[in-house]
Amino acid sequence: MNSKILSCLVVLSLLITGCISEFNANLPSDGNQILIVEGNIIGNSDAIFYLSKNFPLNSGAAPAESFDVEAKLTVIGSNGYKSPPAKSLKKGEYQIAIGELYDDVKYALQIEYDGNIYQSAFSNPIHTPGIDSVSWAQPEKFGDISFYISTYDNTKGAKFFMWDYTEIWEVEAIFPTTVFYDLTNNNYYVIDPPPYRYCWKNARSVSLLTASTESLVENKIINRQLYQISPKDERFSILYCVTVSQIAVSKSAYDYFQNKKTLNEEMGGLFAPQPSELRGNIICTTEPSKKAMGYVEVVKNTTQKRIFIERAQITRPPNYDGCNWMEYRDVLAYLVEKKISFSDYYRMGFRPVGDRNMEYYPKIIPFGWALESCTSCVINGAEKKRPDFWPNNHY
Amino acid sequence: MKQSTLLFILLCGLFSGIKAQQTVSIPQDSINIETLLSFLETNTSYHIYADIDSSFTVFIQENNISPLQLLKNVLAGSPYSVSVYNNDLFILKGQELETVLSSSLTYNSQQDINSESRIQTEKIEKTNFANSENLIYAIGDPYLKDIPEKVNLKGKVIDSKTREPLTGVNLVLKEPFTIATTDNRGNYSINLPTGRIQLNISGFNIKESRRQLMLYDHGTLNIEMIEDIYQLDEVTIIAQRTDNIRNVRLGTEKLQISKIKNVPAAFGEVDILRVVQSLPGVKTVGEASSGYNVRGGATDQNLILLNDGTIYNPNHLFGLFTAFSSDMVKEAELYKSSIPAQYGGRISSVLDITGKEASKEKFTGSAGIGLVTSRLALEIPIIKDRTSVLFSGRTTYSDWILKQLPEKSDYSNGTAGFYDIGTVISHQINEKNFLNIYGYHSHDRFEFNKNQKYAYNNLNASAKWKRLFNSKLIGSFAAGYDHYDYRHTDDTNEYAAFRLAFDINQLFAKTDFSYDMNEHKMNFGFKTILYDINPGTYSPEGANSLVRLDVLQKEKALESALYMEDQWDITNKLSVTGGIRFSIFNALGPRTYYEYNQEVLPSIPTIIDTLSADAGQAFKTYMGPEFRLSARYVLADNLSVKAGFNTMRQYIHKLSNTVIMSPTDTWKLSDTNIPPQKGWQVATGLYYNTPEKVWLASLEVYYKKMNNYLDYRAGARILMNQHIETDVISTEGYAYGVELSLKKEVGKLNGWASYTYSRTFLRQNDNFGNLLINNGDWYPTDYDKPNDFKLTGNYKFTQRYSCSVNIDYSTGRPITIPAGCYYNEALRKVQMYYTDRNMFRIPDYFRMDLSFNIEASHKLTLLTHSSVSFGVYNLTGRQNAYSIYYVSEYNRVKGYKLSVFGVPIPFITYNIKF
Questions:
Q1: A79 lies in which domain range?
Q2: Containing structural domain, residue B680
Q3: Complex prediction ipTM
Q4: B820–A260: do the CB atoms touch at under 8 Å?
Q5: Does A380 touch chain B (CB under 8 A)?
């Protein structure tokens, strides 16, 4: 036996990367027309149903004609119930006023489209329990903020849940101004208090959120994470609000939406399952070879919970907003140098900045100019639409 | 130098005189010994016989002297000495030869003075081993009245050092051309003409040699062979020296671990499964994929045996490495078509891996260090020539690899590790009884993130007793325990934190006999396996978890098989093998099981009866014969044709809906609602060797049918499903193909190349019409890659330096792509839908790897031998698609290509042998 020790190995510096690249295949289009149905029969509500048509994979965004579906929609019940006919809100969007749904009656959605009748499977309405709590946590300083839901039902035994949520948050202009420039008259005017100081933005959940208590000893969901947001997000710049809406669904609806989520969001991993055909609960009763896709669930009610988070409640790293303003005197010098007018400067995207503490006499003069995105909150999709329930005194 | 050679030389010397003096002059003062010798041979009348280990340079100090003196001068101080007899010069290691004959030999030699040879003959005893090239071994009694024309010679070939039997050694008589190959116990049997003959002997890892025989009668000759120290001498990368012309079976490939070390591998590690995957007829769905597909079969249709134990998950690190270190493997044999009757239980192929036994003479070891793993193997003799222990272990530092994998592969934020250990205790009880004890354990763990953890283990232990009852009958008796388990924990939400566990346990016992009656070689035996599967336990993890404990009922079964097979050499040209294996499968209680309405799609509402079986009660039995037939006809010495037909049955099925083997695959036994898989294959082939066996060519054609393969309904739930039979669909399949292979096993350039054209299709065929994948039409499998070209070559520059290359090209595999999309208003996203499976193909696959191998030293006197391999995997950096997938990104759907190793990957491995 030799006592020679393994000599030191010079490990080559390695560069190993797997990679993901975009792939544009010349894909065949199967030319089949499929009716897409979206929406649930919800008791005591103005339920919205969306109808559309499929389109080829490589056509990019949904073409306008895919929403070109004219149909007659009604909700029918096994007791002979028939809802009033649906109101068409816009192309492919229908609203049905649905009354009280009874536990022992089965309901379905009926669609008359293109000379055929499509119908969802009849099923009894499912009672949705109330949401126990919607909570949030930021476990680490400057770390992501996670949102959780807890719910339970020990009366009706709902075991499968789906959620969606609507977010609303308040944003504020960096340099809220009371001084404005009138391009036609080439002069300044004042609106006080600053009208574009506070705005509101909103968003909806973009991912299917489901959970089941099927394998749990109690019919309880505790702190199921819904989503995460970075504290740097503008959502937390002043006041953030989320309203979570819950429905209880049947096992087959749960399986359908779980599979839909897998097929659309979870493909590509080494161990991703084989994609397969997704079958909903809608069939064409008059011509069975006509395809339809979607799952229409029958729900007695939905439940909601809303929470707010103020900026001060979380830790937020300092954020550079990219806004500067140029003093009025320097703006004048700049215009002279460039031989341009205020109108030209305005058209370049700059706006006056001034506030109520300024003396507007003898003339209204701003103390400087800045980019429009710094002086007005109506930017990047924010709107002057203050929700009724907004708890602070910002308008 | 061997004693026997000395004898031969001594005898020659008796009849020779000393050659008259000549002188010689060399025009340079330093010269390579080989050059010097050839100079002398050309320029003097001497014939030079040299046995020099390796080339070295000598210095000429004095010229114009006799060649003998010159050689003596230049070799002074070296381990070599020069002797002269008659016109011949002998350069041999060790002392100079005596020229005076020892008196004890005088009588014999004088007696033979005018016989055909002036060479010593030795009457060989059965217990002795023929170890000399130059002795003539006499078999039988020369004074026998009726010396037959043809006799049968049999015996065993062993390694002179380790005393282990050598498998796949060829014994060849040139005229008339006759060949025999040793079996896996080292035994051979050959029919030879009587009289003086020479057998040429070759095999892997052994020095080519010959034995000279004087045959008078049937007899036994045991042969000792010397291990070839210079492994690069025989640069055959893959072993298939078992003669492809004479072997009766089709579609067999034999791999010798010592010979695949030069094949470039992803991380510089000798890896037996990677080499298996480079053989014709073997496919995978992509890089880093566990499992392989043989001739269109599914991944669960391959039986992988390690020392008789079944390996359920043969992979480490998602398939990047084989689960057992190559240090513990001696050889592996893959049966793709003619599966011997002793094997059963899977319908596609058998990979039989034989563990290495440690040397019983000398303590040796080896160690290797690479970029991903380190390994150590020790061979420890306990009782000299009787008992030895082999220990091998390997561990990894692999977290860094995961960081390199694409984010989408799910692993880039993970950590992973593995180890495996193996041991073989071999004990020779006496000359006729041998006992081996095998142990093997492997462990893998990985985490996708800190909340999701996976682990799996293989454990095998077995004992095997081999007995030589007489020269015709050999028996072996083995019993063991095989285990595989995995567990998965997820505590992302502490109130729903769970642990999912699966395990499979099997006890097996088997006996195998081989009985040799010259023209007939029979194998018969019995095997039984007792399965005990825990199909799933779903339990709470942590104190706050609300998860309800859910335990699927255990599955137990007994699978037994009796087999008998005979290889009948009808004439020297025609041989047939006929085998039958009768297998019986008993699904055993305790079990509650369901009877479904046969007229509709089985689902929970269609249960018509719930039945229960008591403990040990066989509540369902399947049985049937399996036939294994093959025939070979030799058209010419180097040309033969073969045909074969096989039927197989399989009683255990893998449950998985992923394309590749995944760590959470579970296994399910056949029962009332899940019938066994059945398959048959018919194949024929043509085999041609160029003279001297420089090139070996073969062409095989096959057609294969599979029934009762399990596929899944759309959206099937695989894990923790109490009614899995309602989610599976019985599927049938067929495959056909042509495999062309060309090998070169000798010379500086060697390797093999193969081209395969093959197709494989599946079809769901239950009677309930709708809900079938592709509407019940045939569709290509995930591994249907029609064109496939593979090349593995090695070029030896010198004995120390060699270079290897791998080329792999295949048609892209079929995948399922979305049939179209639609807009989802609630999510404000475009969504996709799928219809038909596997109707699109990913781009073709091409990869080239290169490696250089340096053997640091060839000197026998060195205590350690080290070697270095380095090279590049995926030299061209081609971004081969592993998959094409589509993801919904707001207002559109985007296609992506995932490549696993999309850039060149350099590797280096340092190995040391002591």
A1: 34-125+278-296
A2: 252-898+907-911
A3: 0.86
A4: no
A5: no
